[in-house]
């Protein structure tokens, strides 16, 4: 299951994580985000304990989105050791997201 993060919890949940993290930057009004959302939830369940899967609403949490230069959504950032190690912009099939996640596990 995906965890919702905010600007206030981003540091602790994502940057200080002991395991790799993927962050789905999204917004309620974004059609492609609604396509990716269920995929992100599935991956969260499948990788529970191995990786964290989190979602950040860019409208309600602009500081984190600005910090990482998010200009288009959906954008998924892949973090390992508190650093961005990969990025995916736009709606893509589940296999694309999983392949990038597997590469950092």
Brief account:
The chain is α/β, with parallel strands linked by helices and about 100 residues long. The protein is built from four helices and five strands; from the N terminus they run E-H-E-H-E-H-E-E-H.
**What topology, given as strand order, has the largest sheet?**
1-3-2-4-5
Helical proportion, percent range: 25-40%
Q: How would you characterize the largest beta sheet? A: 5 strands, mixed
Q: SSE order, as H and E?
A: EHEHEHEEH
Mean model confidence by pLDDT: 97
Spans where pLDDT lies below 50 across 5 or more residues: none
Shape: globular
What oligomeric state do these chains adopt?
single chain
Annotation, overall tally of beta strands = 5
Helical/strand content category: alpha/beta
Radius of gyration: 12 Å
The helix count comes to 4
Termini distance? 18 Å
> Which strand-content bin applies to the residues?
25-35%
What does this structure look like?
The chain has 105 residues and is of the alpha/beta class. Helix content is 37%, strand content 27%. It contains 4 helices and 5 strands, in the order βαβαβαββα. Strands 1-3-2-4-5 form a 5-stranded mixed beta sheet. Helix 2 links the parallel strand 2 and strand 3 (52-57). It is globular, with a radius of gyration of 12 Å. The mean pLDDT is 97.
Using brief descriptors, characterize the structure shown.
105 residues; alpha/beta; 5-stranded mixed β-sheet; 4 helices; globular
Which helices and strands occur, and which strands form pairs?
Layout: E1 3-5, H1 10-15, E2 21-26, H2 31-46, E3 52-57, H3 62-67, E4 75-80, E5 83-89, H4 94-104
Parallel strand pairs: 1-3, 2-3
Antiparallel strand pairs: 2-4, 4-5
């Amino acid at each position: 299951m995906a965890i919702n993060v905010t600007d206030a919890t981003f540091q602790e949940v994502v940057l200080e994580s002991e395991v790799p993290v993927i962050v789905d930057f999204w917004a309620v009004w974004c059609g492609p985000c609604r396509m990716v959302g269920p995929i992100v939830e599935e991956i969260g369940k499948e990788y529970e304990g191995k990786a964290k899967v989190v979602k950040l609403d860019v409208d309600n949490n602009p500081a984190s989105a600005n910090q990482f230069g998010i200009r288009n959504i959906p954008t998924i950032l892949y973090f390992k050791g508190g650093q961005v190690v990969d990025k995916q912009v736009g709606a893509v099939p589940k296999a694309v997201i999983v392949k990038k996640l597997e590469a950092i596990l």
